[in-house]
Amino acid sequence: MGSSLVAWVKKRSRAEGLAKGLAKGRAQGELTAARALCVDLVKQHHPSTLPLVAPIIEGCPDARLLREWALAVPRSSGADFVRLVTESEAPRASRQGGTSALRTSRGRAAAPSRRSRRSRGR
Fold first, then answer.
1. Distances in Å between the alpha carbon of 20 and those of 25, 31, 63, 76?
2. What is the reported pLDDT for 41?
């Protein structure tokens, strides 16, 4: 009885590990396909902008954003597409842990302590 339980657990853990590996591989494949499609569309519609946007496209970890860019390529001019890619890259880069000058300047001043308020009335 014990050995069949152990066998069942091993079989299930292998299946779960395989499923996780497949999901990760599927996501990586989707990302690779989205990057390739985006680069191919840029080559076809705006080849002169490729040196500017290719590094950003290759470094983008978001398949949804890559699809948005790919759909925008035929509808926009080269300059508009470069602007779209570079502007959407800037907020993503600042979200990855860098402190923004705006964020640090908006801090609130510390409230006075209770002790200092009580001492005023005496």
1. 9, 17, 19, 38
2. 92
